[in-house]
Amino acid sequence: MILGTISLSIISLVVLFILTKLMGYRQITQLSMYDYIIGITIGSIASEMTVLENFEDISRPLTAMIIYALFTICLSLISRHSLSIRHFIEGNPLTLYKDDKIKNEALIKAKMDVNEFLMQLRISGYFDLTQIDEVILETNGSFSIFPKTKYRPAIVDDLSIQPQIEKPLISLVINGQLLRDQLNLIHKDEKWLLGQLKVQGYTSYNHLLLVLYDNNDHITIYPKD
Predict the structure, then answer these.
(1) Is 25 exposed, middle or buried (0-12, 13-18, 19+ CB in 10 A)?
(2) Cβ neighbours, 10 Å, residue 20
(3) Cα(146)–Cα(91) distance, integer angstroms
(4) Continuous H helices in the chain
(5) What is this structure's pTM?
(6) Which end of the chain has the lower number of beta carbons within 10 A, N or C?
């Protein structure tokens, strides 16, 4: 019985992994309502499959999972080539605020009251409606907020300065293990790294959780607790 449950669990995990790869990865905030429902349904079927009494009943939940996944893939391909179908499935963005006016009809359509609307603005860092030009509710439920010109954050072009080009930090040591490929990438050798570590009081990698290299030829060390 236990071995059967373990086997079914492994099968369901493998099937879920394959189906997820086929359907594509998306963050939770990028999921439409339809994607969310399909994901929950497939996960629910997979969980029920793990507690089946015998392998003879496995074909039904497996078939259901595959059909849901294939339907989602087909629908995604169709909506990619048809804007009207995509709008029908995912809906359209709603303008909740514009020209210093709250669009009450749009709030009603979005099943949202004014308090929730203001709360979402506060979460996004906006506490004064007069500073906002437009607010759009996207089809995935997130807010796109466009501040008025004089209240938008300053950018480099506004400051008339020439910023230094920043490169991503490179990990040289992770959990006590030297990453030689990364070291070769910055055209350094192990002798150089050990010399840098020695300057900061470390003689080996064993007690280091992370060592980062920046574009100024400096290293930052994070020792293990």
Answers:
(1) exposed
(2) 13
(3) 21
(4) 2-23, 33-49, 59-81, 83-90, 104-109, 114-123, 156-159, 180-185, 190-199
(5) 0.56
(6) C
